Amino acid sequence: MKFNIPDxxxxxxxxxxxxxxxxxxxxxxxxxxxxxxxxxxxNNYHQFQPLFYQVAMAGLEPSSIVFxxxxxxQNNKNVFVRLATVSAVRPADQEIDTDIGPLRYDYLVLxxxxxxxxxxxxxxxxxxxxxxxxxxxxxLRNAIFEDYERAVTANDYQDRQRFLDIVVVGGGATGVExxxxxxxxKRHIIGKDYQDLNRDEIxxxxxxxxxxxxxxxxxxxxxKAEKFxxxxxxxxxxxxxxxxxxxxxxxxxxxxxxxxxxxxxxAGITGNKIEGIPATSYGRGNRLICNEFNxxxxxxxxxxxxxxxxxxxxxxxxxxxxxxxxxAMQQGKKLAKNLLRIxxxxxxxxxxxxxxxxxxxxxxxxxVADLPFWSTQGILAWMMWLFIHLLYILGTKNKIxxxxxxxxxxxxxxxxxxxxxKPWRRQEKG
Length: 430
Hints:
Elements lengths: L10 E6 L3 H10 L5 E7 L3 E3 L4 H5 L9 E3 H4 L6 E5 L2 E5 L4 E4 L2 E4 L2 E4 L3 E3 L5 H6 L6 H19 L4 H8 L1 E4 L3 H16 L1 H4 L10 E5 L10 H13 L3 E4 L3 E4 L3 E4 L4 E3 L2 E4 L3 E3 L16 E3 L11 E3 L4 E3 L13 H19 L14 E6 L2 E5 L4 E3 L1 H14 L3 H17 L18
Parallel strand pairs: 1-2, 1-9, 2-5, 9-20, 11-12, 11-17, 12-13, 19-21
Antiparallel strand pairs: 3-4, 6-7, 7-8, 10-18, 14-15, 15-16, 22-23, 23-24
Helix pairs in contact: 1-10, 5-6
């Protein structure tokens, strides 16, 4: 199968990955007649990652936080969307290899993001649940509610506990938000849906390998987040590292153990690697070393954006920018301008990141925000978190659906999405 894309006089920009950085770049280049844009992704939709945990906790429908690429580019004849998996890059030939065939490029942009970092622990990887995609979020939702159903029929206390107790590993924004959401579900939902369960038996554990949660934020934000989590009944295990998980028992570095059938792994990310890029082009965290123009070190006409890009040219960011949406989007905007300058024979301009701050929500009226000029915690931070995330969701319909879900959940302390929907599999005939 071929890509079936015509050769034109336009410069062909191939973008691998339709996350925040890749999609921002594609939308900007779509407005220029100088480029033919090919967006390659293994999915045919953009995923709004900051709200994965709300899908996992049955607060939002998956369709509310995804948006089809083809819908974005309906009116752009110079943009081609292709559903494919990229297996390798051949810089010398200026081609990529995919499962539907090779594709030539004039400029290649790698926006392939990052995946769960298991720190080389294969046993943990085999049994813990990651949350880096909508499908993984749905898997987690199924696992939670299937285990609640099993707990209802478990007569023995110990058996029941393995179904009820949940361990979250990682005290960054994702881990804190998941733990807080689980605690609110325990407080407001379990008593309604599972009257024959004692919700006080449910224990939610958050394990973090640093002395404080949200260690990338201010000490005040961390302290407030810990206070919020404790108020919600989350048991904090700080400055401890998970060394093993066999599917039933979590073992920490000090020998402490917790029995749980579900471990949610939010302990870090590592860049997705791609064959054909020299090993010398990779830096810490499997991120691609880039200069101030997002050009990848050691190769020609290849750029990187977002989580996969490691830029250290700014003194304020000696270890690279945070692997969140804002750097990716800002890099996408600047690279679009620079590619246009390059084809016009002008010098590109260096990228400078404008830090808009960081936020995390722990539950209703509980959030923390570190903004450029001030910090706040509590209901104001919570309302700001809601507004900002709603603003960046793609599609008017999606914004409306998410907003209505939030309003309904707020007014009723209830959710209507607590469904176990298993993927259908064709049974092989004997």
